[in-house]
From TrEMBL:
Listed name of the protein: GNAT superfamily N-acetyltransferase
Pfam families cross-referenced by the UniProt entry: Acetyltransf_1 (PF00583)
Gene3D superfamilies with a match to the protein in the record: 3.40.630.30
SUPFAM superfamilies reported in the protein's UniProt record: Acyl-CoA N-acyltransferases (Nat)
GO molecular function, one term: acyltransferase activity, transferring groups other than amino-acyl groups
PROSITE patterns: GNAT
Native source species: Microlunatus antarcticus
UniProt keyword list: Acyltransferase, Transferase
InterPro entries: Acyl_CoA_acyltransferase, Bact_Acetyltransf, GNAT_dom
Domain N-acetyltransferase: 2-155, 152-298
Length: 298
């Protein structure tokens, strides 16, 4: 017998197992980890009691769904329950709840190869808004730091810089639907247990923060040193200071510093709206996974 209930914090490991099984099915490797889920649950706008649901079979979690702080639907179903209707049950729950709350749109990202998942969403009125890519900089790709134009400087990120970094990021991504409060953004980035502030970089113009690159190091013991990969959740430059090579230099110095810590790879995500794919490819990064970003207008 299967029963539904809100998730609890003790379900964290089981939720990650379901997500990573889905990742391995479509990407061939796990993409999301414990801190990705934990930090999403820590957002002030997210409440496990009202924004999550799990389905148990004989006390074992076989499916879950959440409605995140940015109106994103996350779900995963154990393979032996795939196609049994749980995917639609999750979507039913959060589409209904989103309408009750007066939300205007829901979001969900899928691997581009998940044709069944995409067809399920489209049958419910969802549409594909854009394509996105996960890119990786391999250890054998040379990276050279370059001089910046006069007046600019790069240094490690520090706590007093965090509010200004948020302003740069929120303004840079506002046109792409960024709508996280400062507290929710902090929970998902700088307050994560696996993010060390000084590993990130900021660029300043006459002491004003005009660019930022955050980086998350891999969990200890997560694999061989040669495969260790740092993840860049956000890199942004103030609109008035673009086309000066600042984003490229933020990435270069972040990558060089990561390699100095024994983390040889660097990875990030971008989508077609930002127009940044070419920048990252010229920097030496290569696409490793392609996704589609889907939405439902309510």
């Amino acid at each position: 017998m299967i029963t539904a209930r809100p998730l609890e914090r003790s379900d964290l490991a089981a939720v990650v197992d379901l997500l990573q099984a889905y990742d391995r099915q479509w990407f061939g490797e796990p993409v999301l980890g414990v801190e990705d889920v934990r930090s999403a649950w820590e957002a002030p706008a997210f409440d496990l009691a009202t924004d999550s649901e799990g389905w148990d079979e004989d006390g074992e979690l076989v499916a879950f769904g959440t409605l995140g702080a940015a109106a994103e639907v996350e779900l995963a179903v154990r393979q032996d329950w795939a196609g049994a209707g749980l995917e639609d049950a999750v979507l039913d729950r959060w589409e209904t709840e989103a309408r009750r709350r007066g939300l205007d749109k829901l979001r969900r990202d899928l691997p581009a190869t998940d044709d069944e998942g995409r067809a399920r969403l489209e049958a419910r009125g969802w549409t594909v808004e854009r394509t996105g890519w996960m890119l990786r900089l391999d250890p054998n790709t040379p990276v050279q730091e370059q001089d910046l134009p006069d007046g600019y400087a790069v240094r490690p990120l520090a706590e007093p810089d965090v509010p200004a970094a948020y302003t740069v990021i929120s303004e840079a991504f506002a046109r792409y639907g960024f709508r996280r409060t400062y507290a929710d953004w902090r929970a998902g980035t700088v307050d994560r247990a696996d993010l060390t502030l000084e590993h990130g970089r900021i660029v300043t113009w006459r002491d004003e923060v005009v660019g930022v690159c955050l980086v998350i190091d891999p969990a200890p013991g997560g694999g061989s040193a040669s495969d260790a990969e740092a993840w860049v959740p956000q890199v942004a430059v103030d609109e008035g200071h673009r086309r000066r090579g600042l984003a490229r230099e933020l990435l270069a110095r972040t990558a060089v510093a990561a390699r100095g810590r024994g983390v040889p790879r660097l990875a990030l995500y971008t989508n077609g709206d930002t127009g940044a794919l070419g920048l990252y490819e010229r920097f030496g990064m290569e696409v490793r996974h392609t996704l589609v970003e889907c939405s439902l207008t309510l």
